[in-house]
């Protein structure tokens, strides 16, 4: 009887206290470590686990732990008690089975900001704020293990690999690259900060040395080089791979053909001669600053508008006046195109905002941050329903809004996940007492902070600002606002566009005289082209909007300005 009791006690103890533990070492590091330690588990080896963490049902597993002044000589233990995971929150709850394991440290840097706050954040290192590609981050080679959460297991992992530096793009006849140190951003962040750009020169630029050109400013995510421009035909040996997003084969060949076609148009006799630029402005929270001033990320709006753009115009013979600049872009770039036109009405002469991030926070994707109490759930007397976060053109949901936020929380706390929801928070929120952005909602529960929501409204709700400030700036915005969105946008961005359109149409003295258009069953990145499928039109932003602006600007440019010398 006594032996049976001891057996049962041991069995119960082993069941209760059993846990899977990963012991992580840093053999090539010296000193103290700061960053987010990410444990990655995959059921397949189609790619390294670090490349398989996604929104939606196709994702593999990630568990995160923040290192703060951790001695590099001391192994770190990752287990259920100190990690938070996605899509399974606790390590103890993963199913038993075989996994490919990888651990990566996304390194943080200490910033002593101008406002007196000290924060630890990941600095971009030329990759566009991608934690799984950032040079200098250390990681382990994938290791296949068998995990049984009901037994005690210890797996040793060595972070003995380092992601190498990224090579800078080379100048060509048509594409040049620049990088400047921003005085404004350097002062804010307390360390050297840079802005960059890829400049596409017009045909005849070297021969027409007395001509000055308008500036076409394409906003979007961090571009490694100027996108969609190729001086040679598509590669003959391209594989006929299947593209799951668009359900077609050979999409890479289509991409290259479109880029080559644009080159032929750009250098042909009828295309407007302008300078086209794609800018690089990653911040410590994301691959892109959102091109506005912010308490958390600093004066990026001023730095881009008053430092970077004048520098480009001086170096490459830009006209250098607000009437000779316009902005265009999609998604993040769509929001930015509209935001800078709104924030800097004298500095830009038109915006073309395609599939913009939420431009009205009454429809912050599927949340009304002013009226809703919870961002993750619809209110219910009995059983709350999760809000959708991502859908296809048929409305089939692949991720909830909570899912998407939980992924970011696993990747980093304090708005440091480096993904979409965290950058919105970093840009739009006031700065908190700890130096990090004040959350718009509790990341775990989804409960919305109404005080923060009011701050968002007054400073970054573009529809609200347009309506509020129309009596003051309406004459400067008139005829310059054009918005396009698919009515089945994957992220429900069309909901905010509907609300914005209603407000714009009701403006008067003057009327807004712009354009809002929708694509039938069109998904994300639709940009106003009703003649082509979305997988084609999304590749044609430059060739669509530059000629369109050159025609539209005739109505919005002050009399007496030069509209002909650069039209050779």
* Uncertain stretches: 1-16
Major sheet attributes? 8 strands, mixed
Structural class: alpha+beta
Q: How many β-strand runs?
A: 28
**CATH topology call of the largest domain:** Rossmann fold
Termini distance? Answer: 101 Å
| Rg, alpha carbons | 26 Å
Strand content: 15-25%
Number of domain units = 3
CATH architectural designation of the largest domain: 3-Layer(aba) Sandwich
Please identify the top-level CATH class of the largest domain: Alpha Beta
Mean of all residue-level pLDDT scores: 95
Spatial strand arrangement across the major sheet: 13-14-18-15-21-22-27-28
Task: Estimate the global geometry from the Cα principal axes.
Answer: globular
What does this structure look like?
The protein is of the alpha+beta class. It has 3 domains: 20-162; 175-360 and 462-556, Rossmann fold (3-Layer(aba) Sandwich), CATH 3.40.50.1820; 367-458, no CATH class. The protein has helices at 2-17, 183-189, 251-267, 300-315, 332-343, 401-411, 420-428, 450-460, 462-477, 494-505, 534-537, 541-556, and strands at residues 20-25, 32-42, 61-71, 76-78, 84-86, 97-107, 109-112, 118-121, 138-139, 143-147, 153-158, 161-162, 175-181, 194-200, 215-219, 242-243, 248-249, 275-280, 293-294, 298-299, 325-330, 351-354, 377-378, 385-386, 388-391, 397-400, 481-486, 515-519. The protein has an 8-stranded mixed β-sheet, with helices on both faces. Helix 5 packs across helix 9. Keywords: Signal. This is Esterase. Residues 1-18 form the signal peptide.
């Amino acid at each position: 009887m006594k032996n049976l009791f001891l057996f049962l006690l041991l069995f119960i103890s082993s069941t209760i206290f059993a846990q899977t533990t990963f012991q992580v070492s840093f053999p090539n590091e010296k000193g103290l470590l700061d960053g987010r330690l990410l444990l990655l588990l995959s059921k397949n080896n189609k790619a390294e686990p670090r490349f398989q963490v996604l929104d939606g049902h196709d994702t593999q597993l990630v568990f995160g732990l923040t290192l703060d002044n951790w001695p590099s000589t001391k192994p770190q233990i990752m287990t259920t008690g100190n990690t938070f995971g996605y899509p399974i929150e606790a390590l103890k709850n993963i199913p038993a089975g075989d996994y490919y394991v990888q651990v990566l440290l996304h390194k943080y840097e200490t910033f002593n900001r101008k406002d007196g706050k000290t924060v630890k954040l990941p600095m971009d290192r030329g990759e566009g704020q991608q934690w799984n590609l950032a040079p200098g981050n250390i990681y382990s080679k994938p290791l296949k293990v068998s995990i049984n959460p009901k037994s005690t297991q210890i797996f040793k992992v060595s972070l003995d690999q380092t992601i190498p530096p990224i090579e800078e793009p080379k100048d060509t006849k048509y594409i040049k690259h620049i990088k400047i140190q921003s005085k404004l951003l350097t002062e804010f962040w307390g360390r050297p900060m840079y802005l960059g750009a890829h400049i596409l020169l017009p045909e005849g630029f070297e021969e027409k040395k007395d001509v000055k050109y308008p500036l076409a400013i394409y906003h979007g995510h961090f571009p490694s080089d100027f996108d969609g421009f190729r001086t040679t035909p598509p590669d003959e040996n391209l594989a006929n791979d299947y593209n799951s997003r668009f359900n077609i084969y050979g999409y890479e060949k289509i991409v290259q053909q479109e880029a080559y076609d644009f080159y032929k148009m750009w250098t042909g006799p009828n295309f407007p001669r302008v300078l086209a630029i794609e800018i690089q402005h990653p911040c410590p929270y994301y691959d892109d600053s959102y091109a506005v001033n912010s308490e958390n990320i600093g004066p990026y709006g001023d730095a881009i508008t008053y430092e970077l753009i004048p520098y480009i115009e001086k170096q490459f013979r830009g006209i250098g006046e607000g009437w000779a600049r316009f902005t265009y872009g999609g998604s993040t770039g769509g929001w930015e195109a509209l935001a800078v036109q709104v924030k800097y009405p004298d500095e830009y002469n038109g915006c073309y905002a395609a599939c913009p991030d939420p431009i009205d926070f009454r429809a912050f994707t599927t949340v009304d941050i002013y009226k809703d109490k919870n961002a993750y759930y619809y209110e219910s007397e009995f059983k709350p329903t999760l809000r959708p976060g991502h859908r296809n053109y048929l409305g089939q949901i692949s991720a909830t809004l909570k899912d998407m936020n939980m992924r970011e929380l696993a990747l980093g706390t304090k708005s440091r996940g480096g993904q979409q929801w965290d950058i919105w928070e970093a840009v739009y929120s006031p700065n908190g007492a700890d130096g990090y952005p004040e959350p718009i909602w509790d990341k775990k529960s989804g409960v919305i902070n109404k005080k923060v929501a009011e701050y968002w409204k007054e400073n970054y709700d573009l529809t609200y600002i347009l309506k509020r400030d129309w009596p003051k700036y309406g004459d400067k915005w008139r005829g310059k606002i054009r918005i396009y969105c698919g009515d089945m946008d994957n992220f429900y961005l069309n909901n905010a566009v509907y609300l914005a359109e209603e407000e714009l149409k009701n403006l008067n003295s003057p009327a807004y005289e712009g354009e809002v258009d929708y694509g039938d069953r069109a998904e994300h990145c639709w940009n106003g082209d009703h003649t082509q499928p979305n997988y084609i039109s999304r590749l044609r932003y430059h060739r669509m909007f530059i000629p369109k602006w050159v025609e539209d600007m005739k109505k919005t440019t002050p009399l007496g300005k030069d509209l002909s010398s650069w039209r050779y």
